[in-house]
Amino acid sequence: MPKTWILKTPIKEKDLEKLKIGDKILLSGVIFTARDAAHKLLKKQIEEGKKPPFNLKGSVIYYAGPTPARPGLPIGSIGPTTSYRMDRYAPFFYSLGVSATIGKGSRSEEVILALKKYKAVYLSTIGGIAALLARHVKKAEIIAFPELGTEAIRKLFIEDFPCFVANDIYGNDIYKKMQRFS
Questions:
Q1: Hey, is 125 helix, strand or coil?
Q2: Which of 29, 59, 92, 124 could form a disulfide with 166 if both were Cys (CB 3.0 to 4.6 A apart)?
């Protein structure tokens, strides 16, 4: 039976060990947005020996590119991006200590193996509710690659951000499990 967990970032390994696919998560703390272009630049920067703009150990990367904020709000709509687009970069970032990523849709077998190897999880949230997800962002600031516009890396301060465990550290995959029922 799935459980509901309240987690704070940075996420610790002992917390990851408790999580199983289908578990609901209310996530609070700091997370970072990054999509395709930011992943490419960030990986290149790290491979060149430059320090990343945030501590990767225990961090959470949200695959999202928000819309501009309306006056008085910290951010615009911020729905998840289709995650498979980051699959070529994900194992690299898990190997450096990223503990979780958030997006939508299934992941490749290579990513699932990396999650198991590096003890990380893939969290999913629901597309189509981007305006509602924005209500959980209390503050947002661009911390890297402002030239990328909506794809710049942002530091988000979130509270009770809703998501669920799609892939756990044990190699389980909710998308494969659900295919058996269809």
A1: coil
A2: 124
